[in-house]
Write a structure and sequence with these properties.
Layout: H1 7-14, H2 16-39, H3 43-70, H4 79-97, H5 105-135, H6 143-173, H7 178-206, H8 222-230, H9 233-264, H10 269-294, H11 296-311, H12 322-333, H13 336-358, H14 363-392, H15 402-427, H16 434-446
Helix pairs in contact: 1-6, 1-7, 2-6, 2-7, 2-9, 3-5, 3-14, 4-5, 4-7, 5-14, 6-7, 6-10, 6-13, 9-13, 9-14, 9-15, 10-11, 10-12, 10-13, 11-12, 11-13, 11-15, 13-16, 14-15
Length: 454
């Protein structure tokens, strides 16, 4: 019988997601325009740096996951990695957000390249074991949705705060010029880095890690593990659908500041972010309960349909349509929480399916592949969008041509909606429901020598 996870343990596990969201959103939403418009990195080079850093990140994530799965330490498989990487992640993040004043374009590009790669190396050492940790805390079909939903809810809350804090600092400073931007990011870098370390320490001290018997630990060649993982049909379907959806979803995050400023003619990007993530966070408990009633796949698809249906109308907006944009953002936000949290719970289910197939627990490896999808989606968002805008004639801090405006709108709203539609078609073939999962768990628990000492 699976023991319930105390709420205090769920909160301690989920809390670091708050800091990770603050750091991640700062990088993807605020850093590109800071480096292009204030520091002076050319837009095309900026896109390539982000793209190549994410390709690098994608290469190391599965390796980090498999190494984490094979770690044997008194603390467990995940905690040693979190303890080792917390402080270096904060240091790299701080240097990334606080470049020296007076760098020329070449120096700024070199600085951005160096610290982006270092930041994402240590970031992977945190995020891969952290997410793998969550997948093994509970094996209950509904409780893992609540647990991972809480984690992803705190991720949304962190994203909300990441929209509010810069706006508060700008109002306090009385403007948004280059010096103010630098000072603002310096405060955010130090604050977010310290918060990450504190919350990870709390997680390490409060949350017990499961210790699996040797029979359930991965063995053999890493290549064989990769082949087995990709042969897991439910995982392949889920991963493909999520990757397509994530690529579409990252384009609006990457281009939000550009769209709001140059298409709508507004400076209220932080307000729009706050509305979107605030509504997504507030409605997440509803989606978690709905998943318990109608199923995870069905809930995810319904949320994608609502999210995309409203956002597709953004294609028809133009200068001054701020009020209508606000309405559409609020409607689109209704499904946002579920598109984040429900796939996380489904991912944990396919990891159990893999144990049923192979007899081994490989959370780290599967999370590594999952993070490849997420990070490559983000990288392609920047790596595709910024060079295209540059080629269309984008000029920083100037009124944009009709060609740039049309291209920006299509990338911001048209491509994401198409991607989500395709993701829904793929996700429909996902086979694991409550009944199948119950049979899988019964067979796993009935095997002799399961070795779970949790």
């Amino acid at each position: 019988m699976e023991r319930p996870v105390p709420k205090s343990v769920q909160i301690a596990y989920g809390a670091p997601a708050l800091a990770l969201a603050l750091m991640g959103v700062t990088f993807y939403v605020y850093l590109p325009r800071f480096y292009s418009d204030v520091v002076g990195v050319p837009l095309a080079q900026l896109g390539w740096i982000i793209l190549l850093s994410r390709v690098f990140d994608a290469i190391i994530d599965p390796a980090l996951g498999m190494l984490s799965d094979r770690t044997r330490a008194r603390w467990g498989r995940r905690k040693p990695w979190l303890a080792a990487a917390a402080i270096p992640t904060g240091i790299a993040f701080t240097f990334l957000l606080v470049p020296p004043v007076g760098l020329d374009a070449a120096g700024a590009t070199l600085w951005l390249t160096l610290w982006t790669f270092l930041f994402f190396f240590f970031w992977g050492m945190v995020t891969v074991p952290y997410e793998a940790f969550g997948a093994e805390i509970s094996a209950d079909y509904d409780e893992r949705t609540r647990l991972l939903g809480l984690r992803d809810g705190l991720l949304i809350l962190g994203t909300l705060f990441s929209a509010l804090f810069p706006a508060i600092l700008e109002n306090w400073a009385g403007g948004a010029d280059g010096d103010t931007e630098r000072h603002k990011l310096e405060i955010l870098a130090i604050s977010y880095s310290l918060l990450l370390v504190v919350l990870l320490v709390g997680c390490l001290l409060k949350v017990e890690e499961r210790h699996w018997g040797e029979a359930r630990r991965p063995k053999g060649a890493l290549l064989g593990d990769i082949t087995s993982a990709l042969a897991n049909r439910p995982f392949a379907i889920l991963l493909l659908a999520y990757t397509i959806m994530a690529f579409g979803g990252e384009l609006p995050a990457t281009l939000l500041l550009y769209y709001v400023k140059y298409v709508l003619g507004s400076e209220n990007a932080s307000l729009f972010l706050a509305l979107y993530f605030g509504i997504g966070f507030a409605l997440l408990p509803f989606w978690i309960r709905l998943a318990g009633k109608i199923g995870k796949k069905e809930t995810w698809m319904l949320a994608m349909a609502i999210n995309t249906g409203a956002f597709s109308l953004v294609l028809f907006l133009g200068p001054g349509d701020t009020e209508l944009y606000t309405v559409l953002i609020c409607l689109s936000a209704v499904g946002y929480g579920a598109t984040l949290a429900i796939p996380s719970s489904m991912q944990a289910d396919v990891i159990d399916y893999e144990e049923w197939r192979s007899g081994t627990r490989r959370e780290g490896q599967f999370v590594g592949f999952w993070l490849i999808a997420r990070k490559l989606a983000r990288a392609l968002g920047a790596g595709v969008a910024f060079p295209i805008l540059d080629r269309m004639g984008y000029v920083p801090n100037e009124a944009q041509s009709p060609t740039v405006i049309w291209t920006l709108t299509l990338l911001y709203a048209g491509v994401p909606c198409f991607c989500t539609f395709v993701a829904m078609l793929v996700a429909w073939r996902y086979p694991i429901d409550r009944a199948l999962y119950s049979r899988i768990r019964d067979e796993i628990e009935g095997r002799e020598g399961g070795g779970n000492s949790a």
